[in-house]
Each structure stands twice: as C-alpha cells, then as structure tokens.
C-alpha cells in the first residue's frame, strides 16, 4: 500500500465518521479545516519564534488581565460590530440589531463557508485566534502590541461601564415620579 492509498483510506474513514456524527446542517469538514489552519498558524508562529530566538515576555497578572480584556473586545468587535459587518458579509445574512451596538446575523452556506461564518460571528470562537495573534504580537512586535492591548482593554472597560450606567439609569425613578 502506498502513502497515497493510506491517505485515501484515512480520509475515507474520517469522512464516514463525520457523516455518522453530523446532521446535514453541520459543517464538520469546515470545522476540521479551521482547526487545521489554527494549528498550522500557531505552530508556524512557534517555529518562527524558536528559530529566531524570540520568546513572548513573561506575563504579569496585570498583563494577563489586559490580554483578556483586549481579546474579549477585539473578538466582539469582529463578531458583532456594525462597522466590521463587511468582513462577515460573505458568510452571513443580516437579521437586525441585537443588544448594545451589535448585530444579529444568520450564518449561511455550507462546508468551509458555514464554518468560517460560525467562527466570525462567535466572539467565544474568535477568542483563541485573537489571543494567539496578540501573543504573537507581544513576541514579534511588542512596541505596537502593548499599546493596542491598552487601547482595547480600555474600550472593553468603557463598554462595561456604559452598560452598567445605562442599567443604573433605568433603575432610578424618573424625576417627575418623585414626590416633592
């Protein structure tokens, strides 16, 4: 048996397993491709870092907090913001506004298109990609990445404060309903 025959056998077995798992609306092959791309990018970045002797700086608890806040905010901007909707257009259909300054979109297509659509509309799914990109930035371009961490962390904190302020305003009685 040649290597090509072995690869074909493995591919056919994986396809049978995926068919037994998936409903017709699932994009199992697209998910596998997305995981492969993520693994290749993360592995490639690690290899380049090792070959060039670069290492990400050790992160303090404060920097991990900034990284988490920035990851959260960037993932939400990419997945839900109106301004970034052109990035999602090939993979989604607009449904309407959702929440504070966010959009509701339905993923469309099948296979890889559907998998990418689910990735780019899910801030939870984008989190590992964004955190990996930011960590690569800290490794290869810390002078640019550190200020970006600060900016997106500040925006995330500001968003939480805006939502909290709006909630507090709704809980207070309007001035005309207060007794004199």
Write the SSE topology.
Layout: H1 3-21, H2 28-52, H3 61-80, H4 85-88, E1 92-98, E2 102-107, H5 111-120, H6 123-140, H7 142-171
Antiparallel strand pairs: 1-2
Secondary structure tally: strands: 2
Count of the domains: 1
The description of the largest β-sheet is: 2 strands, antiparallel
Residue stretches low in confidence (pLDDT < 50, at least 5 long) are none
Which structural class do the helices and strands define?
Answer: mainly alpha
- The pLDDT mean sits at 90
Question: How do the helices and strands follow one another from N- to C-terminus?
Answer: HHHHEEHHH
Distance between the termini: 91 Å
Radius of gyration: 22 Å
The amount of beta strand, in percent, is: 5-15%
Shape assignment: flat
Strand order of the largest sheet: 1-2
Notes on the structure:
By secondary structure, this protein is mainly alpha-helical. The chain has one domain (11-168). It has seven helices and two strands. Strands 1-2 form a two-stranded antiparallel sheet.
In short:
With 180 residues, this protein is mainly α. The protein is built from seven helices and two strands, in the order ααααββααα.
Features:
7 helices, mainly alpha, 180 residues, 2 strands, two-stranded antiparallel sheet, 7% strand
């Amino acid at each position: 048996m040649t290597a090509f025959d072995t690869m074909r056998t493995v591919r056919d077995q994986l396809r049978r397993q995926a068919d037994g798992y998936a409903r017709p609306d699932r994009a199992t092959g697209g998910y596998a491709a997305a995981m492969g791309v993520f693994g290749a990018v993360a592995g490639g970045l690690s290899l380049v870092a090792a070959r060039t002797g670069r290492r990400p700086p050790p992160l303090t608890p404060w920097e991990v907090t900034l990284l988490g806040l920035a990851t959260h905010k960037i993932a939400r901007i990419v997945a839900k913001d109106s301004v970034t909707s052109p990035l999602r257009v090939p993979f989604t259909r607009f449904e309407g506004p959702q929440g504070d300054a966010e959009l509701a979109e339905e993923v469309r297509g099948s296979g890889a298109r559907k998998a990418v659509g689910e990735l780019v509309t899910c801030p939870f799914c984008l989190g590992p990609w964004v955190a990996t990109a930011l960590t690569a930035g800290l490794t290869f371009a810390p002078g640019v990445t550190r200020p970006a961490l600060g900016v997106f962390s500040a925006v995330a904190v500001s968003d939480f404060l805006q939502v909290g302020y709006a909630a507090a305003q709704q809980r207070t009685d309007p001035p005309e309903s207060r007794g004199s």
